[in-house]
Specification:
- The structure is a single chain.
- The chain is of the alpha/beta class and about 190 residues long.
- It contains 10 helices and 7 strands.
- Helices cover about 40% and strands about 25% of the residues.
- Strands 2-5-1-6-7 form a 5-stranded parallel beta sheet.
- The model has no long low-confidence stretch (mean pLDDT about 95).
Length: about 190
């Protein structure tokens, strides 16, 4: 928390990205940090990138390889840049389309963002070139593939081929092309 507070400027908004691969501990870190900041009297707003994925038909069974669907199609990358990332510093209300998995559709979500606060955005692939420039500070949560896989439910672990062909190939691509641990200001080993 001290690291985050040291980057804050009085009266200004700080955009903190928490990046890491699937099951690395991003959400846990974001929630814990939010609680600590609020207890210290610092306003916060937490956004989870998994809330803004696209409908299933746009990210599964396309003409792309499964790993490309996950990396390139899971989110409307350009749309989120325009509707979320570019607006992080200047608006008091963010209006976003939040994904409802049960309905496989979106509903409008409004998030109030005070002028002087910490906006915490957590999600996988957060340092992709389209989004990184909007983040003031990024913490990368590093965790081994084995550890992360063991955090999945037993039922989910039985579908290892999905991990091999979809998730892990996309993660390898991200690590190779973006080098998120190198770009981040802070790397946390979990």
């Amino acid at each position: 928390m001290k690291y985050v507070v040291s980057h804050m400027r009085e009266g200004e908004r700080l955009i903190l990205g928490i990046d890491g691969l699937s099951r690395s501990g991003k959400t846990t870190l974001a929630c814990g940090l939010e609680q600590e900041l609020r207890q210290s009297g610092i306003a916060t707003c937490v956004l989870h990138m998994d809330d803004y994925i696209v409908e299933r038909a746009k990210r599964y069974n396309t003409d792309c390889e499964p790993w490309e669907e996950y990396y390139r199609l899971q989110w409307d990358v350009i749309g989120l840049e325009e509707r979320l990332f570019r607006r992080l510093k200047g608006t008091g209300i963010l209006e976003l389309m939040r994904y409802d998995a049960e309905k496989d559709s979106h509903e409008i979500q409004r998030a109030a963002v005070s002028e002087a606060c910490v906006v915490i955005i957590e999600g996988v692939f957060l340092q992709r070139k389209e989004w990184r420039k909007y983040l003031d500070v990024v913490a990368y949560v590093d965790s081994s593939r084995t550890t992360r896989f063991l955090r999945e439910s037993e039922i989910t672990r039985r579908k290892k081929d999905v991990f091999v062909n979809r998730y892990w190939k996309a993660e390898d691509y991200y690590i190779t092309t973006v080098a998120p641990a190198r770009l981040a200001e802070l790397v946390l080993h979990n």
